[in-house]
């Protein structure tokens, strides 16, 4: 009896061990992940093509059209101020479902101060973002908001800086933690420093002790349906935008990034399986002066990088580890003069034997000054593209699509004159921050599924199975032994 049980358990162990290396059963998908990433990519392409075609047909009658589908959605309305919430219908890509404060009341920020993080003053931005109802937040006038600690934003909020010159700086900056449906539009974010070890209110009924934050411009933890559009970000201590801990359904569009080392991190760490379901669209952004790396740096997930202008980098533009899918379409990559930094891509701490199967593709990109993109996996085959690409091979088209990147009506670049906000982040693990535990097994309600990209192996899973089998054999052996003594 016992030998048969042992053989049976051994067969199960072998089957599960081999299955875990080839199947997507053990991949985690996020509850609000799009089941078909390529369908979302195709819709972005369709929206761009429609806007470009409309501009060509109506350029003489309507000078407001740019071919940028986000801007053309609302800027051609001369009365947009009276219809601000129309913006919520203009997002594209994976973050297109971000409602922000649509349907909620208009909240006018009248006070730029941030004196009390535990009991925010009514009329301040901090008081607005913690309310537990949908709000469309606007600003009475130009203002510089110097944060005392990180600004914890609750679900269903739009921060709409259109019509005012709004600067957010100081300690902590913007935190989106385990929330949904947030739009951040037309604000300058810079000189963000680490902060915390303080009581910070996150809702009208809850204030809690927060640990030290990283000093990111915008930190996104375990959140979904997020859209960051037409902002100018620079000079922060850690990342300008970091999305980690199972965040998904994000669009980062029309922003102006400058003067920073590690620009954008997507993914907590290589072992955090929940980030396999991360889906991010990066579109129409300008990556400009003083940037070094991470535009973005990806761990797992599906990242669509489309119609961006990469004007500067020092080390690399797009990096990754842990088998992310990177779909680069219709971007312009201008390599630096350094002959050792011409490559757009970087596989971080991984040899070719492993990354050769990762799906990284370049489709219709423009390579300038010796820039080159190293594709891999299915990206090596033209058959991988299921629909015709936007493929803007004209540099003039990229200029057109990104001409308004940054805060509309203000300087695109936050400026070299500002004092630098802090040093570079340490290490490649990233993804920590204000009060988050950062545990690898903290999946925030993730579920098992088959929609994420397969990974190569799960050593920890095999080890766990081995221990369970050894324990089972020990129990059965002792149990049978005790029976024989009866």
From TrEMBL:
Homology family:
Belongs to the polysaccharide lyase 1 family.
Q: What is the lineage of its organism?
A: Eukaryota, Viridiplantae, Streptophyta, Embryophyta, Tracheophyta
Using the record's annotation, list all stretches that form the Pectate lyase domain. Answer: 142-339
In Swiss-Prot or TrEMBL terms, this protein is called: Pectate lyase
Q: Which SUPFAM superfamilies match?
A: Pectin lyase-like
Q: Please give the superkingdom of this protein's source.
A: Eukaryota
Catalysed reaction, written as an equation: Eliminative cleavage of (1->4)-alpha-D-galacturonan to give oligosaccharides with 4-deoxy-alpha-D-galact-4-enuronosyl groups at their non-reducing ends
Under the heading PANTHER family, the entry gives: PECTATE LYASE, PECTATE LYASE 18-RELATED
N-terminal signal peptide: 1-24
- Cofactor(s), by name: Ca(2+)
Keywords (alphabetical) are: Calcium, Lyase, Membrane, Metal-binding, Signal, Transmembrane, Transmembrane helix
Q: Which organism is it from?
A: Olea europaea subsp. europaea
Per UniProt, the enzyme's principal EC class comes to lyase
**What molecular function terms (GO) are annotated for this protein?**
metal ion binding; pectate lyase activity
Recorded metabolic or biological pathway in which this protein acts: Glycan metabolism; pectin degradation; 2-dehydro-3-deoxy-D-gluconate from pectin: step 2/5
Q: Where are the transmembrane segments?
A: 458-476
């Amino acid at each position: 009896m016992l030998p048969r049980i042992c053989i049976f358990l051994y067969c199960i162990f072998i089957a599960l061990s081999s299955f875990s290396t080839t199947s997507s059963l053990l991949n985690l998908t996020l509850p609000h992940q799009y089941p078909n990433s390529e369908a979302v990519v195709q819709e972005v392409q369709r929206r761009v093509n429609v806007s470009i075609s409309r501009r060509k047909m109506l350029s003489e009658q309507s000078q407001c059209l740019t071919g940028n589908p986000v801007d053309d959605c609302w800027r051609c309305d001369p009365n947009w101020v009276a219809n601000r919430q129309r913006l919520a219908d203009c997002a594209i890509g994976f973050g297109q479902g971000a409602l922000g404060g649509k349907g909620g009341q208009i909240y006018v920020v009248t006070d730029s101060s941030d004196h009390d993080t535990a009991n925010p003053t009514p009329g301040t931005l901090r008081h607005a973002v913690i309310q537990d109802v949908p709000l469309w937040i606007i600003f009475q006038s130009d203002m510089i908001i110097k944060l005392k600690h990180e600004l914890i934003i609750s679900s269903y909020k739009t921060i709409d800086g259109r019509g005012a010159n709004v600067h957010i700086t100081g300690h902590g900056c913007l935190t989106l933690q385990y929330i949904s449906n947030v739009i951040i539009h037309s604000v300058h974010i810079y000189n963000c420093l680490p902060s915390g070890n303080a009581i910070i209110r996150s809702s009208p009924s809850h204030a809690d002790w927060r640990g030290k934050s990283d000093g990111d411009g915008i930190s996104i933890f375990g959140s979904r349906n997020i859209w960051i559009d037409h902002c100018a970000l620079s000079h922060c201590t850690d990342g300008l935008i970091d999305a980690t801990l199972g965040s998904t359904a994000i669009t980062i569009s029309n922003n102006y990034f400058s003067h920073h080392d590690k620009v954008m991190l997507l993914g907590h760490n290589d072992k955090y399986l929940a980030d396999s379901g991360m889906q991010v669209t990066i579109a129409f952004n300008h990556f400009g002066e003083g940037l070094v790396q991470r535009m973005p740096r990806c761990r797992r997930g599906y990242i669509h990088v489309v119609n961006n202008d990469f004007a500067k980098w020092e080390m690399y533009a797009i990096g990754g580890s842990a088998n992310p899918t990177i779909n680069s379409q219709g971007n312009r990559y201008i390599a630096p003069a350094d002959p050792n930094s011409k490559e757009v891509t970087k596989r971080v701490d991984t040899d070719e034997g492993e990354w050769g199967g990762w799906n990284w593709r370049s489709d219709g990109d423009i390579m300038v000054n010796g820039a080159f993109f190293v594709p891999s996996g299915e990206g090596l085959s033209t058959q991988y593209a299921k629909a015709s690409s936007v493929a803007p091979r004209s540099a003039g088209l990229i200029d057109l699509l990104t001409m308004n990147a940054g805060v509309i009506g203000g300087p695109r670049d936050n400026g070299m004159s500002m004092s630098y906000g802090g040093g570079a982040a340490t290490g490649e693990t990233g993804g920590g921050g204000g009060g988050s535990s950062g545990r690898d097994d903290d999946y925030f309600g993730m579920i098992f599924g088959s929609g994420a990209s397969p990974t190569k192996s799960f050593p920890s899973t095999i080890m766990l199975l081995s221990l369970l089998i050894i324990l089972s054999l020990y129990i059965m052996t002792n149990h049978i032994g005790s029976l024989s003594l009866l």
